[in-house]
Automatic annotation (TrEMBL):
InterPro entries: DinB-like, DinB/YfiT-like. SUPFAM superfamilies: DinB/YfiT-like putative metalloenzymes. It holds the Pfam family DinB_2. Residues 19-128 form the DinB-like domain. This is DinB-like domain-containing protein.
Amino acid sequence: MREFPIDLRGVVVDGLPYSAWQILEHMRIAQRSMLDYALQHLIDTTVRSPKQLRWPRDYWVRQQTPRGNESCEHSVRSILQDRTDFEALINKATDDGLVTPSGPRNRKTLLRLALQIADHNSYHIGQLVIIRRLLGSWKR
């Protein structure tokens, strides 16, 4: 987000539902939710999630404009830290620990969550690139 112009981060391009800021926050919230799920259901079942999020309401912020550059920087730092924390879980896991399902309906694994995070974030990073291009701020 460092190169995404501050004054454009809250702009909703005509025809699109979200601003770049809302997408960035969605990435942060969703990735944190997946990390919390892994910690609670796959790593330590005594850990309780701070809050059960409801889809889609709790995964998207309504505020389309960040409260200054620090809000965006905080979101980026949080995304990077949570990714690092998730990578640590992967690195500590045994082969069986990566693929053993647990949690509600016994269907998620640590590997599945890692792939879901990678897929989810890459999709939204692509959206951020497109928004930047549509706003005319992409360097050729």
